[in-house]
Known about the structure:
By secondary structure, the protein is mainly α. Helices cover about 70% and strands about 0% of the residues.
Amino acid sequence: MEDKLKATINKIIKLSKQNEEFRLEMQRLFGKAVSASPISNYTPISQDISEIRTALEIRGNHSIDYDFIKEKRLREQLLIDNYRMENAALNLQEKEIDRFYIFCVNAFYQVENIVNYYFYILYPNINDLLTVIEDATKNDGEKGKYRFDRSKGQYDNIGDIQIVHKINALCNLLFTNDIPVRATLGNLRKIRNEGEHRCQIIWSEKNEKDKLYVFFKNASFNSIRIVLKKVVSEVRKQLQPNKSKEYKAAILSLISKLEDIQKAYSEGDIEKCNDLIDIGETILASFNVEDDNTKFLQSQFSKWTKTLSNNH
């Protein structure tokens, strides 16, 4: 073994012993995936990112700017995953399916953390968060088959909520009609869940009926990168200080009005229903109609009011 390679290995071993987070990152590197932790559980990193890049011989540069993330530990984690994603794309010594798998897994780690961050910042109160995710996913699947239901588990923090529901809620709120974003995020989650060995088998079998194989066949490093950048860009925009507070207040207020309308209708108080509908329409009118969030809220509100009108 070359002296340079031995020195690199020794340095990695030393860093692994000194820093638990670095050790977990090395597990990811060699195929032992570790799920993203809830934001509140992050611990500081003592080594600088440049030192970690040197130890891992990362050649790629980061392709996404995470400077809007306030939590230093999370920001560094996102950058490390992004570096390793881009490093996989450049590592031409590996087989393409192996490079693609590593690229996708590290892209998903970024998705998982950015989705958690988005909901954590907007809805720090767990009950508010559960209400929003329930409402945003209530039409997922036939007759709401895949909706999130808080009664089926114990949810004390954002990390307790299954990532599939958080991703679906994000797509319904921010990317209502964007099929490529929804499909890409869903497939990245499946790749992470299947694991490297299973993905290699799926690739080798070339079964055109297997949706994951079709994704392997048609997706590219760049198509995934574009979707990831789009998600991060939209989250950045939504978390602008003034807008995030206004949107949070609007969606919670509108959800409250929908519940009040339903209650008033069930009690036969049609006059109160109409008054509440007017209030809901005023809330919606205060936002930019071109915004995807507003379009989603308008569509949900319209469905409710139309149902009430038809029944009346």
